[in-house]
Amino acid sequence: MTPFSGRLSRYGSVLLFPLAMIIYDFSAYLTTDLIQPGVINIINELQADVTLAPVSVSLYMAGGLALQWLLGPLSDRVGRRPVLLTGAMIFALACLSMLFVTSIEQYFVARFIQGTSICFISTVGYVSIQEAFDEKDSIRIIASLTSIVLLAPVIGPVAGAALMAFIHWKLLFAIIGVFGLVAWFLLLFKMPETVISQGREFKPGEVLSDFIAAFRHPVVLTGSLAVAFGNLPIITWVALSPVILIEHGVCLPVPMPGHRCPCLVGSLSPVRS
C-alpha cells in the first residue's frame, strides 16, 4: 500500500462517522417530508378524521422536544456513543413498527417516538462531530451535513408523492427504518467516544440549575425565542399543507411539493444573505 492510499483509507474510515450522521439525519427528515403528500390517505386508511392529519407533525415535533433537556447531561456522564446508538436504534425500530400499525393511536405513538431522533441528532450527534474533529474540519463537516440534509424537504415530497402511487406507505416507513439501521451499524463501528469524564453521577437538580443559569443569559433567551418563532410558520405550513392543498382540492398530491418551495426558499434566504 502506497503512503497516499494509506492516507486515503484512513481518511475514508474517519469520514464514515459523518456519513452515518448524514444517513441518520436525512432519514429523520424523510419520515415527514416523504410521507406528507400521502398523509390524507394514511388518515383515511386508519379510519380517522382528516382534521387529525396535522397531529402527525405536531407529535413528531413534540418528540423532538421531549428529551432535549436530558440527553446532553446524560451523554456527558455515560458517553456519547451509547446515547447516540440508543437513539438510532429507537428511531429505526419506530419506523419499522409502522408495518404493524392498525389504528391512528398506534400511528401517532410511532410518530412521537420517531421525533425523538431530533433530540439525539442535535444534542449528541452534532456535538460529537465537534469534539471528534478540529475546529475547521468540524465546521466544514457540519456545514456539508446540513446542506445535504436540506435536500430532504426538496426531494422528499416529490419522491413520496411518486412512490406512493406504487408502494404502500407502511413499506416507505420500513425503507426509512432500514436506512436507520444502516446508520446504526456505521455508528457502532466508526463513531469515536469523545467523552473521557464518564461515570459521574446524574443529578437532576444540577441539570436544572444549569438550564436556569443558561436561560438567565439574555443572548441565550432571545436567540432561542428567535429560532422558535422563526421556525413556527414553516412547521405550521408543513403540518397543515396536506389538509389545505389536497383535502380541499387545491391540488393533487403529486404537484403538492411545488407549493412548499416558497417556504423552503424563505427559510434559506436569511442564511444566504
Automatic annotation (TrEMBL):
Molecular-function GO term, any one: sodium:proton antiporter activity
Domain Major facilitator superfamily (MFS) profile: 13-273
Subcellular location: Cell membrane
GO cellular component assignments: plasma membrane
Gene expressing this chain: mdtM_3
Keywords: Cell membrane, Membrane, Transmembrane, Transmembrane helix
Spans traversing the lipid bilayer: 12-30, 50-71, 83-102, 108-129, 141-165, 171-189
Protein name: MdtM family protein
Pfam families associated with the record: MFS_1
Entry annotated with the keyword Membrane: yes
PROSITE patterns, per database record: MFS, SUGAR_TRANSPORT_1
Principal localisation: membrane
One GO BP: xenobiotic detoxification by transmembrane export across the plasma membrane
Keyword Transmembrane helix in record: yes
Gene3D superfamilies per UniProt: Multidrug resistance protein D
Coiled coil location: none
Protein topology in the membrane: Multi-pass membrane protein
